[in-house]
Known about the structure:
By secondary structure, the chain is α+β, with helices and mostly antiparallel strands. The protein has helices spanning 16-26, 59-69, 79-83, 86-92, 106-109, 111-120, 136-148, 172-183, 250-270, 303-307, 316-323, 365-370, 407-420, and strands at residues 8-13, 33-38, 49-51, 73-76, 97-98, 128-131, 153-157, 166-168, 193-197, 203-211, 215-217, 222-223, 226-228, 232-235, 240-243, 276-286, 289-296, 341-348, 361-362, 374-377, 380-382, 390-392, 396-404.
Amino acid sequence: MSIRVPSRILVLGGGGREHALAWKLAREAGVDEVIVAPGSDGIAGEPRVRCIRVEPMDRGAVVALARAEAPDLVVVGPEAPLGAGVADALEGAGIPVFGPMRAAARMETSKAFCHEVAAAGRVAMANSRSFGGGDLDAAVRYVGELDDAGHGAVLKADGLAAGKGVIVTTSVAQAIELVPSFLAGRPADVPALVIEARLHGPEASVIAICDGTRAVALPPARDHKRLCDGDAGPNTGGMGAYSPLPDLDDPAVEAILDTVHRPILAELARRGTPFRGFLYAGLVLTADGPVLLETNVRLGDPEAQAILPRLDIGLAPILLAAARGELPADVPTLLPVTDGATVAIVLAADGYPGDPRRGDRIEGLDEAAALGALVFHAGTVARRRPEGGFGTNGGRVLAVVGDGPELQQAREHAERAADAVVFDGAQRRHDIAADAPAPAMTAVAR
């Protein structure tokens, strides 16, 4: 495989996903410098990484930064800048960018659009309907129809919600009570709410690097969305992840690329909006096979923190080739990984996912690193001397990643390292990868 390696890379974003990206890219042969905007104090501590305080949502400022720094490639980390057209602005300025244009980014910014594209590509998804602000009666009726058919209702806000705009209802009464909160004040002719039939089975994340037509898969991972052990508590942006998945083997991942990613790429290309970026498929592994739950247009967070340390191939040249629409045929469909497993445990601030507290002193980061764990910063800030160190500065504060020859050892490693990190009000789960399913999933729903 012979692909040009970008020597200077600009990564947009400043969370845990972008820390993991910067860590991975800066370690690769041929990469001289990774610039992260805005980055963070924690990210700035990585070798060959420099942070510049530029707002990723400001298209003009991002283009000006890219012109001034002259990177060989810009990688857009979060979904919001993609939905705001930052990739369009960079491409319009002739700057190579990995991340979809605004029209293709609707695969995440509109759940109704995702269902529309999936249906056109014959991709299996849950039965659903979308509703605008004037459709309250119709939405309530649809909840009743799902119940009559033996299905629970899942309510999803049609738009970006940082992974928290979804409510899995437990009764018809709860669903009917909550529907108005999704529709109030919304235009009648614009989708505001998608109601889906509830699916049952473990979830999985399969993320592909796409060049508009071709898709190559990163190792699959499993995210844990609920705040508390046993999948209790409110939805969050993700409280931990692990990779690989014992119940999703390589042939199953290949089949998912064939039945999910490639049909979506083909349909978007047919519409004149080719997709170049990370295409994230959130799946439910039902008894009949994998069914698409959602798509995102970027790396998952915290999946990235578990996936990227497993990659046994240079990521930078693959991203540059995909940005140009030219993934070589000899890039493996399943990107190679190291032996073993990884488990990422998220430590969140007091009050998350509502109103997280900031400013609590973090202790034990050196101890976690001494145990051999990776620590990726998501919501931290450097504290002024004489104390020094870091304090909390956001909802999800850190991801602590342990590895091992098998999932159990990786989990024990991550738990020991996470135990070493202490701050007031810290929230975390203790069951990440504790009950990984055993049987391999090979059937694919159509």
